[in-house]
Write a structure and sequence with these properties.
The protein is of the alpha/beta class. The chain is built from ten helices and nine strands. Helix 1 crosses helix 5.
Length: 336
């Protein structure tokens, strides 16, 4: 595994702060001249990395494509079912081809896989920035730039599904809930499923990285309405018709844990004390708690949700397994 599990733990601890065949909703329609490709590099016979100039982020950023069979011979109008994979808190899109090894999945040989990078701790959110707004507008970058770009120029079709790890899981849930029918199905792995439940953990993680966590959604007590507006739990009505896969370790030791322990994040002591004594990963324990809460809410709404909670920590390699567990749900949406 080339991705550092300790780095993932720190960054994702900070991060924890759909009917198919439809057209992209108007809110995410292409805007002329934005999201321009300024570089294109073929990594191997299937993997292409784009460099995108993003006005929403105020910078250039990579977006990787794992291309399907026949893609190199595509003609105008050719379209493929598209799986979007959203990066975790470190923003590293290459994790999908290193830790997750998505290129080994035979089921994806006829699927276009789009893997956009994200700024560090970007949270797939248009940042509040203490009321000023502005960059990074990460949700806008994805909806107004990445999706229209790959649908216009790279063969991405209107049948879409999405999965995300940690912050990426928050991203796919939040966007699916706020924009019903954007994705035919979503999977969120070890994610902040309802971050308003544990604000101290997410803000402490941001401080650990020297990032102003209050710039994302503001103070959880003073800007409570902003936190709720972005929280998937409080947008759950939008997921009524979207198959959802939720998974998380419970924070106890599991069979796929990394050798090194998770780093201690100052400010999380309250939750370390409140979780059970056998919990060794406060980050993953928070994920599991939030997964259960969101799962119950979706079940109450009679939404199609599948939830898998298992022994394991946030530094493990469970995402490799959990993406494969979620794949039938995602592919079913893409094949309709």
């Amino acid at each position: 595994m080339t991705h550092s599990s300790t780095r993932r733990s720190v960054l994702t601890a900070a991060a924890l702060l759909a009917a198919s065949g439809t057209s992209l909703p108007a809110a995410a329609s292409p805007v002329h001249g934005v999201g321009a490709v300024v570089g294109e590099h073929r990594v191997d016979d299937r993997l292409v990395e784009l460099t995108v100039d993003s006005p929403a982020l105020g910078r250039t950023i990579p977006v990787a494509l794992l291309t399907p069979r026949g893609w190199d011979r595509r003609r105008p109008g050719d379209r493929w079912p598209t799986l979007y994979l959203l990066a975790g808190g470190d923003g590293d899109h290459t994790t999908w081809t290193t830790m997750f090894q998505v290129q080994e999945l035979a089921e994806l040989h006829d699927i276009l896989v789009v893997m956009p990078a994200m700024p560090l701790f970007g949270f797939w959110t248009d940042w509040w920035n203490h009321g000023r707004g502005g960059a990074p507008r990460v949700r806008t970058y994805f909806l107004h730039e990445v999706v229209p770009l790959v649908e216009r120029d790279y063969g991405a079709g209107p049948r879409r599904a999405a999965a995300g790890d940690s912050q990426g899981g928050f991203g796919v849930l939040g966007m699916a809930a706020r924009t019903p029918h954007l994705f035919g199905a979503v999977a969120a792995l070890s994610a902040p499923f309802t971050p308003i439940r544990h604000p101290e953990i997410w803000l402490s993680g941001a401080a650990f990285l020297d990032i102003d966590g209050y710039a994302v959604w503001g103070d959880p007590w003073k800007q409570w309405d902003t936190w709720l507006d972005w929280d998937p739990y409080y947008r759950a009505e939008g997921l009524r018709n979207t198959p959802v896969y939720l998974s998380s370790g419970d924070g106890t030791p599991g069979p796929l844990d990394a050798d090194e322990p998770e780093p201690h994040i100052p400010g999380t002591e309250k939750w370390i004390a409140l979780f059970d004594d056998d919990v060794v990963s406060v980050t993953e324990a928070a994920c599991a708690s939030e997964a259960r809460i969101l799962s119950r809410r979706l079940e109450t709404l009679r939404a199609p949700v599948t939830t898998h909670i298992f022994p394991g920590t946030h530094t493990g390699t469970y995402g490799h397994r959990e993406l494969r567990n979620a794949l039938p749900i995602l592919l079913n949406a893409l094949r309709r």
